[in-house]
Amino acid sequence: MFEFLVxxxxxxxxxxxxxxxxxxxxxGIKKRLAENPRAYRKVGDGRRTTRRELIAGLGSTGHVALxxxxxxxxxxxxAVRHQREEDYH
Length: 89
Description:
It is elongated and about 45 Å long. Strands 1-2-3-4 form a four-stranded antiparallel β-sheet, with helices on one face. It has two helices and four strands; from the N terminus they run ααββββ. The two termini are about 15 Å apart. It has about 90 residues and is α+β, with helices and mostly antiparallel strands. It holds the Pfam family ParE_toxin.
C-alpha cells in the first residue's frame, strides 16, 4: 500500500502525509480489531466465517482491511487496499 501512496504523491509534503496516513491506518485498524474483530462484515460465500473486511475511512476516501480471525483471539491482517487501487473490487 505504501507504493500506491507514493505513486499518488507528487511532493515531499504529500509523501509525508502518506506516511502519516499509514500510521493512522495501522493504529486505527489495530485498535478496532482488538476491541471486536467479529463486528465487521463477512467476506466470500459465508462458509468461511472467520474471514472479514473492515472499512476504515480517512477523509473523503477509505481503505479496506481483509483479515482472518484465528483461534485464541488472534487476528491476522491479510491485505489493506485503498479504494482507488485498480484491483479493488
